[in-house]
Design brief:
single chain; alpha/beta; Nuclear Transport Factor 2, Chain: A; Rossmann fold; 2 domains; 8-stranded mixed β-sheet; 16 strands
Length: 413
C-alpha cells in the first residue's frame, strides 16, 4: 500500500496515468488530476473531446514513448511521442511534483506517416526548374531551419516569404496528408519565383512556451520579418512579397509593417476578420458538435467577450493570447501599408467564411491597391473538392489548385 502511494506521487507516473486515462476516455479521473488553473480553463470531458479530435483521424494507437524530461518553473515537463497507424503526436505534460497535478497539456502533430497512395505529382511542379537551399531564419535563441527554393537561370527573381497558419507548423505547412507550403514553394519556383519557407517557432521550440504566455510577435511576426530580411538580402532576389495563410494571412500586414521598406506587396490567403471565439463557435457548430459542447465553449470565453482582464488559461491557451487576437484589426494594419494587396478566399472554406471576407472588404473599402479573388471549389487549404466541405478532405493526399499558383505568379512578378 505504501509503495503504491509513493509511486502515485512520482511525476512520471502522474503523467503516464493521466495520458492513459485520456486515451481510455475516463473523464472523472482526468478531471480529478487537473490543477486548479487548468481545471478552471477546461473540463475533463473537453480534454477528452480534444484528444479524440486530434487522434481519430490517425487510426489505431500503436505506442507511447517518453522522449524528454525537463524542469521548468517548479514543474516537471514530460515530452511523449504517441504513435498511431497513420501518424504521430507530440504530447507535452507539465506536472506539479508537490501536488501530483497536471498544470499544462499540449498536443502537437508530428510529421504524418506517408499515405499508402501518395498524390500524383502536382502538374505545376518542374523539379528541374529550381534548386533547394537549406537556410537558417532569425538568430539564437530562436534560430529556425528553413528551405529556400531558387529558380534556375538568370535572375534576379521575385521573392516570396510564406507565413504559416495557427498552431505548431513545419516549413511545408503539413496538414494531415497535404503539404500546402511545399506545393506553393515548388510551384512558384517552377515559374521563376524564389520562395522561402521555414519551421515555425512553436514547432521547433514549443516546449519552451509550455504554460507560458505567447504573443503574435513571438509566434509569427518576429520570425517572418527576419525571413523577409534574409530573402531581401539575397543577390538572386529583386523584391519580396509576404504571402500569409490563415492566421499568417491575418498577421501578414504586420509582418510587412515590421519589415518596413523591404516588402513590395502582401498576399492574404484565407484571412479571418471575426473574433476568435466567434470563429471557434461557428466551426464547432459546423462540425456537428452537441449543443452542450457549443455552450461549454461559449461559456469559456464569456469573460473575455465582455472585455474582462485576461487571466490564466482559456481552453488550455493563455487568455492574453485570445485577447490580443480579439483586439487585432488586420484590415486597419493593411490599410496603413500603402502596398498592393491581394486577398484570396476559397468558396468551400468552412474555417474562414464569407463573413470574414466581408470584414476585409469593409475595412479596405477605400483602398485602391487591393484586389479580392474568390476561387470556386477550393477549401481552406486551397485544394479543390466537391459538395459540403469537411475536415476529412485533409486526410486525402492532394495538392493546392493550379489556379492559386498561377494567380500568385501573376501578382508577384
Amino acid at each position: 500500500m505504501l509503495l503504491a502511494l509513493l509511486l502515485a506521487a512520482t511525476p512520471d507516473v502522474t503523467a503516464q496515468t493521466f495520458l492513459a486515462d485520456l486515451r481510455a476516455a475516463r473523464a472523472p479521473q482526468v478531471a480529478t488530476v487537473l490543477g486548479e488553473k487548468l481545471k478552471a480553463a477546461i473540463s475533463g470531458d473537453a480534454l477528452i473531446a480534444a484528444w479524440k479530435q486530434a487522434t481519430d483521424p490517425l487510426g489505431a494507437f500503436v505506442s507511447l514513448e517518453q522522449t524528454q524530461t525537463a524542469q521548468q518553473g517548479g514543474l516537471t515537463v514530460f515530452i511523449h511521442t504517441a504513435t498511431f497507424e497513420k501518424g504521430a503526436l507530440q504530447l507535452t505534460t507539465a506536472v506539479d511534483p508537490a501536488r501530483s497535478t497536471i498544470e499544462g497539456f499540449f498536443i502537437k502533430p508530428l510529421m504524418p506517416t506517408l499515405p499508402a497512395t501518395p498524390a500524383p505529382k502536382a502538374s505545376y511542379v518542374d523539379a528541374a526548374a529550381f534548386t533547394s537551399v537549406e537556410v537558417k531564419v532569425g538568430k539564437a535563441p530562436f534560430e529556425l531551419p528553413g528551405t529556400l527554393t531558387l529558380p534556375k537561370g538568370k535572375g534576379p527573381f521575385p521573392g516570396v516569404v510564406l507565413v504559416h497558419g495557427s498552431g505548431p507548423q513545419d516549413r511545408d505547412e503539413t496538414v494531415r496528408a497535404n503539404t500546402v507550403f511545399k506545393d506553393l514553394a515548388e510551384g512558384l519556383s517552377s515559374k521563376g519565383v524564389a520562395v522561402l519557407r521555414y519551421d515555425k517557432r512553436t514547432f521547433v521550440y514549443g516546449k519552451q512556451y509550455a504554460g507560458k504566455d505567447i504573443t503574435f510577435a513571438e509566434e509569427v511576426i518576429d520570425d517572418a520579418a527576419a525571413a523577409v530580411e534574409l530573402l531581401h538580402a539575397r543577390a538572386e532576389v529583386k523584391h519580396v512579397y509576404v504571402v500569409g495563410h490563415s492566421l499568417g494571412a491575418l498577421l501578414a500586414p504586420s509582418v510587412a509593417a515590421r519589415a518596413k521598406g523591404l516588402v513590395t506587396g502582401v498576399v492574404l490567403l484565407a484571412p479571418s476578420s471575426r473574433k476568435p471565439w466567434d470563429i471557434l463557435s461557428q466551426q464547432t457548430k459546423f462540425l456537428g458538435a452537441p449543443a452542450e459542447k457549443v455552450a461549454e465553449l461559449d461559456a469559456a470565453f464569456a469573460e473575455l467577450r465582455l472585455g474582462g482582464k485576461p487571466q490564466g488559461l482559456v481552453l488550455n491557451v493563455p487568455a492574453s493570447y485570445w485577447r490580443e487576437w480579439a483586439d487585432y484589426d488586420g484590415p486597419a494594419v493593411a490599410k496603413g501599408l500603402g502596398l498592393p494587396l491581394l486577398v484570396m478566399h476559397g468558396a468551400r472554406d468552412y474555417q474562414v467564411i464569407d463573413e470574414d471576407l466581408a470584414g476585409w472588404k469593409k475595412g479596405l473599402a477605400n483602398v485602391k491597391s487591393v484586389e479580392f479573388v474568390e476561387l470556386p471549389k477550393l477549401n481552406h487549404l486551397f485544394v479543390a473538392g466537391e459538395g459540403p466541405p469537411s475536415p476529412k478532405e485533409y486526410e486525402v493526399p492532394s495538392h493546392v489548385a493550379p489556379e492559386l499558383v498561377e494567380r500568385l505568379v501573376k501578382f508577384v512578378r
